[in-house]
Backbone:
């Protein structure tokens, strides 16, 4: 795992909105809990390295609340596309997700960068393999053989929500 996947204890007060002393107390409990998972929580040079997934679960004020969204997906193409194209794609993805489980939700933003539009969306579906199969079944994506699909796990939902707020109003597709 890369260094960007970890926080230092000293960085956490502004990330999780808790005082440093409170974090130190929680760290004692977390150390015992994650004792067997040395790749997620370890001390090096008198400094604690805490994986992002642990921060969200154990250190946030709302740690007892289940996270709403599990995956962050970005789809880009090497050709110019318009927002109508991306709306067709996201509606197809939504329709095929509903076939798997009708309770899944999607929130998306069509972003323009360097005069090229691309799609970001988040979903509470955590089934990567099923999503990859869905992407392969969408004719509009198959037609464009130069498509890049990036699927990442959401560790810090607050940062992601802030990102979506900066963009055009994100659209939550109906259930």
Residues:
């Amino acid at each position: 795992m890369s260094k960007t996947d970890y926080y230092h204890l000293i960085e956490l007060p502004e990330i999780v909105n808790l005082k440093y002393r409170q974090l130190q107390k929680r760290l004692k409990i977390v150390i015992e809990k994650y004792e067997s998972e040395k790749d997620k929580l370890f001390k090096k040079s008198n400094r604690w390295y805490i994986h992002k997934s642990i921060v969200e679960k154990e250190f946030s004020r709302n740690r007892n609340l289940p996270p709403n969204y599990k995956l962050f997906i970005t789809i880009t193409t090497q050709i110019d596309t318009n927002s109508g194209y991306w709306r067709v794609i996201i509606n197809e993805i939504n329709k095929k997700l509903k076939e798997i489980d009708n309770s899944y939700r999607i929130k998306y933003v069509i972003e323009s960068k360097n005069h090229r539009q691309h799609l970001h969306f988040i979903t509470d579906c955590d089934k990567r393999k099923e999503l990859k199969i869905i992407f392969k079944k969408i004719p509009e994506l198959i037609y464009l053989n130069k498509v890049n699909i990036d699927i990442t796990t959401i560790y810090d939902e607050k940062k992601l929500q802030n990102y979506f707020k900066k963009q055009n109003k994100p659209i939550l597709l109906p259930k």
User: Anything to note?
Assistant: The helical segments are 12-16, 20-33, 52-59, 83-100, 128-137, 139-143, 157-166.
